[in-house]
Amino acid sequence: MSTLQLHEVTLGYVTKREATLALESISLEVKDGEFISILGPSGCGKTTLLSIIAGLLKPTSGHVSFQSVQSPEEENQVGYMLQQDYLFPWRTIEDNIMLGLKIKGIYSEKTKQFALRWLEQLGLADKKNFYPNQLSGGMRQRVALVRMLATNPSLMLLDEPFSALDYQTKLKLEDLVYQTLKAEKKTAILVTHDIGEAIAMSDRVVLLSPRPGRIHRIFDIPVELAKTLPFEARQHPNYNGLFQMIWKEMESLGSTS
């Protein structure tokens, strides 16, 4: 069953000076439980596309349909994880992860315990009374992940959530996020500039062309890579060949960023 469908999604901006076409005719189907990464040159509309999927922007034409296989009360919930954790510094970690529940009006003892179990599973139960400035960058991003998971969304949108971290922490968090989302059978879309990250975490990689962003090519990740933890996938014999293929395709578009 398809969770998400984009049909001929186009977005244009009009200002006093000019009209700009950011995205043009994006059609894509993302199946339930699938992990998709979106790559492309800077300014090609990757984050804009996520914002449209999240319902934060309305396309100029085309439409997005989203159907969850979860229960009706959970349907159409979308989780968003960004490059910055955006934790409120004056609130404790526990208070921060409860915010989504309170905003959505679903805060209760049951949902609170659900969120705290995630905090425990991600190794942060002993930090619930800490404040954000008492945690490392990697810990703060784990808190951001818990905050997203606490509302039990059916679709996860990840906008370069590891790019501000040091490389070792980034690799560890990639494995953690991959394991968590696969175990929960969540559908996820990751925007990244990192070809290696896209290959290591995804079932498919969508490459967008320079502005206006169009789907230039979709790469299917071989099962032996897609079913492997990201850190281990980078050591797989098939990894380098696929990396070079995507790199050359991006080069042909005029950018590797």
Task: Describe this protein's structure.
The chain is of the alpha/beta class. It has a domain at 1-29 and 36-77 and 189-257: 3-Layer(aba) Sandwich (Rossmann fold). It is built from nine helices and nine strands. The strands form two sheets. Strands 5-6-7-3-8-9 form a six-stranded mixed β-sheet, sandwiched between helices. A three-stranded antiparallel β-sheet has the order 2-1-4, covered by helices on one side. It is globular and about 50 Å long. This is Hydroxymethylpyrimidine ABC transporter. It comes from Halalkalibacter wakoensis JCM 9140. GO terms for molecular function: ATP binding; ATP hydrolysis activity.
Notable characteristics:
257 residues, alpha/beta, Rossmann fold, six-stranded mixed sheet, three-stranded antiparallel sheet, 9 helices, globular, AAA+_ATPase
Set out the fold topology.
Layout: E1 2-14, E2 19-31, E3 35-39, H1 46-54, E4 61-66, E5 78-81, H2 93-103, H3 109-121, H4 137-150, E6 155-159, H5 167-183, E7 187-191, H6 195-201, E8 204-208, E9 215-220, H7 223-226, H8 230-233, H9 239-252
Helix pairs in contact: 2-3, 2-4, 3-4, 4-5, 6-9
Name given to the CATH homologous superfamily of one domain:
P-loop containing nucleotide triphosphate hydrolases
Q: What's the SSE pattern? A: EEEHEEHHHEHEHEEHHH
Instruction: Specify the helix fraction band.
Output: 25-40%
Number-wise, the strands total 9
Total number of helices: 9
Rg, alpha carbons: 18 Å
Rounded to the nearest angstrom, the distance between the terminal CA atoms is 34 Å
Structural class estimated from helices and strands: alpha/beta
Percent strand: 15-25%
Q: CATH first level of one domain: which class? A: Alpha Beta
Mean residue pLDDT: 88
Q: Which outline best applies?
A: globular
GO molecular function, one term: ATP hydrolysis activity
Keywords: ATP-binding, Nucleotide-binding, Transport
Protein name: Hydroxymethylpyrimidine ABC transporter
InterPro entries: AAA+_ATPase (IPR003593), ABC_transporter-like_ATP-bd (IPR003439), ABC_transporter-like_CS (IPR017871), ABC_transporter_ATP-bind (IPR050166), P-loop_NTPase (IPR027417)
